[in-house]
Description:
Strand order of the largest sheet: 3-2-1-9-10-13
CATH superfamily of the largest domain: Metal-dependent hydrolases
CATH architecture of the largest domain: Alpha-Beta Barrel
Number of helices: 15
Mean pLDDT: 96
Distance between the termini: 33 Å
CATH topology of the largest domain: TIM Barrel
Structural class: alpha/beta
Amino acid sequence: MPDTADLHLHSPFSMATSAAMTPPTLIDACTRKGISVLGSGDALNAAWRRMWQEHLDNDAGVLVVPTLEVEGKGRIHYLAIMADFEACAELAADLAPHARDIEKAGRPHVDMGGEAIARAVHGLGGLIGPAHAFTPWTGMYAAFDSIRDCFGEETIDFLELGLSADSAYGAGIAELEGIPFLSNSDAHSASPLKLGREFNRLRPGTATVRSVIARVRRGEIAMNAGFFPEEGKYSRTACTRCFTQYSLEEAKRHRWHCPVDRGRIKKGVADRVRELAAPCAPAPRPPYLHLIPLGEIIQRCLGTTSPATKGCMQVYNALIAGLGPEIDILIDMPVADIAEIDPRVAAAVDALREGDVILHPGGGGKYGSFTICRAKE
């Protein structure tokens, strides 16, 4: 069986993260979502590492992989995967002279460039790559035109796509050929709307951290899954105040200031990728499956204002209790079985699988939205 892995999330020690983001809550959420390999997130923080210790062996069989995100010079974010928490503690000690908040923060800022950070991670046997590489504020390609410009002589072991990109976006960039793509949730909450909203299917292997590291290093990614890129906050070039969208040519003509309210226009991922892509056929990649969280599908079916309403949660809990984990319901469960519990949701899942979805792209920091065309009984 392939492993379903979400390797990037955050702890309560990171900003804007739920206080309920605890190891037991995360493990329980993994069983409901269908995640078998979970990145710990924030493993440079000693208190968070201690909180995980008694949950590494858990009855749910969720394999916990030490992972961390760090912000380097220029606000660029990096994701690292380590072999154990001892290596994370050593890395924290190595980075501490360059950081003021490494003992307190979940995602610390270190006054180091990508090359130095990658060298430190590689020296301890870890993997590293740019986190949400195309995001216009903190992604590698926001500030650099190439991997070498960011990482110097150090190599990257993977590239994290981020919510506003899928594999097709990176496949057309020549320098990324042969570099594995990861799609992770970057969750700040254990809600099923956040955790596992993007994930990876790794080819089968032993249930150990070292096996996961080896499979990622070798590019043994059977499938990536997650948002339609248009759903991301930075899909299109747009004003960061009023979210009015512009073509790249219009943004340049307005000198990156919105004529509506003089807000800053931020270049969208789709436009940035077009700047970087080579004029040749994209390199082959594992399939990317576009999914919408089950809670959002139920919300559309019931016509409520939030997936967290009592009615939505009743339907969600009935589906999980009757059919199993959310990811299995979205991908593998026969529509007829879903219909036995809720025909409306069954029709919507069928429409999603058929691609009968209208997308309304996001941009400037506002998430995009969608309409499921056949979400009827």
